Structures are given as structure tokens and as C-alpha cells.
Amino acid sequence: MAAAAAAASDDAAAAGGRFDFDVIVVGAGIMGSCAAHAAASRGARALLLERFDLLHHLGSSHGASRTIRDAYAKAHYPPMVRLARRLWADAEAESGYRVLTPAPQLTVGPPGDASLLAAVGNSGARRVDEDDLAGRWGGAFRGVPDGWVAAVSELGGGVLNATKSVAMFQALAVKGGAVVKPGRERELAAEAGFPTFSSHGDPHVYGTPSLELPGLIKINYDGGPPCDPDGRDWAGGGGDAASRVARWIEEFMPDHVEAAGGPVVRQPCMYSMTPDKDFVIDFLGGEFGDDVVVGAGFSGHGFKMGPAVGRILAEMAMDGEARTAAEAGVELRHFRISRFEGNAMGN
């Protein structure tokens, strides 16, 4: 929801301690974030309000993918899709990264389906026969029933990364001068003073306050079975991690966090481990000398240090040394590849 806010004079605002905005947008999902960006890009003083935390999972704007397609039965939608495509491209150009991956759009259905025929007509899709369809995309749709209509719009589809899209428009809105204010969840939230924590017993767990799922707390089991990055078991790859975490919760946080029914969300995360759990930040050496720099093996605890590691890697690659690390007292000798020579366990 967007509403125009009557702005008082600057003197009156200062005297009353008020903040005045030209546009107030309520709801920071994709629609609200785009509205705030559009208003800010026109020079308006925009305020974007969100009940929960930004990029939360409680609405309709989160996740890895959404479809964009121009095959609509109702003729008033394709012009809006075409406008949206242009504005997606403009936002991508402004932000410098891509959230929309173009793809063909395939529309199929029985020949007497009026909605299908209208969608094909409105999109300008080209009808394809059974042989043509069977030869596309590795034959993935060769099971379409005989006699059905199949039409392809070569540039009519695409995939949008939903969460990245929302983040992109929020960032662009702020860049344009908008103010973004998320809500504050109580008790388990960092804003309320709830701590990050770690427990070094058995099991070793660590946790973060409520953030991406308001009202819920994230507790992680620091461990798991070996896995093949190219053949992970996404459903049960964590072994008995959930039950071990549940037992820890029942012992350490009784009557505060409910664990009897199992986790609300279970998400495995892959660790790229070194034997000593220390990073690898070093020149590759050998025939490559100092021309190749390696950053790897962050062992499940590297994300927080991303800006520092990124700066160090860039300086090593460009300058042959990491001055920032030295100035900050970071001793890179702990991260050398050679530490495994003669000692497979490293440090």
C-alpha cells in the first residue's frame, strides 16, 4: 500500500521533531520495494515500512525463483509484463547484477481450451508440432498427449530470483534516498538484546536470534557426515542432527523454545572443511607462482569474515602482498597451504 503524505514545512518539522515524507509505502515485499524505488527515483522523500524483518519468509516475495511469462489468456496482462521486463532490465543495469534469467516459454493444452488459445494468441507464441517438441530440451516434453496444442515463445519466459529481486529494489530505493524501516520482533530478536550463542559440549551447537523467520530461533548443529558436493542428500543429509539439537534445546532452553515437534524449517549447509578447520589463503605456488591466489576451506565459520578475506585475496592478487592484513595484525602464516606438508592435520 502506498499513500501520499502531506509534507509540512522544514521549520515546522524541525520544531515538532517530525520526519516528513512525500510517500509512505507499507509493506516491503516485491510490490512495496518496487514502489519505494520508483518514488525515490523521482526525487520523492520515500519511507518503506515493513512489519517484520526485511527479506522475511512469511509473505509471498521470498525464495529462489519466480516465473515471468507473457502467455496470459487475459489480454490486459502482456503489456504489463513487457513493461515489467523493461523495468527489470533498468534495475539490473542500475544495480550491476542480474536477477532475471531469460528462457523460452512453452504453453501446452487441449485444442478446445479457450484459455490456452487466448494465451498463445496474446503472447505471439509459435505453434510447434509433435516432432519439433520432442526434439527440444532433450525430449523432456515428449509425453504431451497427441492432438494437444504446443506453442513456444522463444523470449517469452524467464526465471526471477525472488529474494535477490526484493533486496535489489530495496537497495536501489535506499540509494535513491528512501528510508527503509523493518519491524522489530520481541524476545528472541537481536534487536531485543537476545544473544548469539554457542555451546561447546556434546553436541556442539550455535545459534542466532530471530531474523529471517520472525518469532523463530535458528539453532545449528556444528557437524555432520561427509558429503559429495555434486550428489548431496538434500532431504536427510544431516544425519541425526535435528534430534541432537532437539535434545540440547530441551535440556538448555526448557519451556522457552518448543522442540517436541521437530524443527519448523530444516536447512542443511555444506561445510568445505580443512583438517584443522583453518582457512586456506595463499599463493598457489609451483608453476603458477604468485599469479594464482587460493581462498578455500572456510570450514563453516568463514562467512562473517568475508569482507576481510575478500580484501586480502584482492591485495595478494593485485599487489603480491596483503598490506591490510598486516596493518590489522592478521597473521596469514596460519593459512598457508604448506602447513599440510609433512603434517596432514595442519596447524
TrEMBL record:
GO terms for molecular function: flavin adenine dinucleotide binding; sarcosine oxidase activity. It comes from the Eukaryota. Keywords: FAD, Flavoprotein, Oxidoreductase. Residues 22-183 form the FAD dependent oxidoreductase domain. Pfam families: DAO (PF01266). Gene3D superfamilies: FAD/NAD(P)-binding domain. Its cofactor is FAD. Belongs to the MSOX/MTOX family. This is FAD dependent oxidoreductase domain-containing protein. It comes from Oryza sativa subsp. indica (Rice).
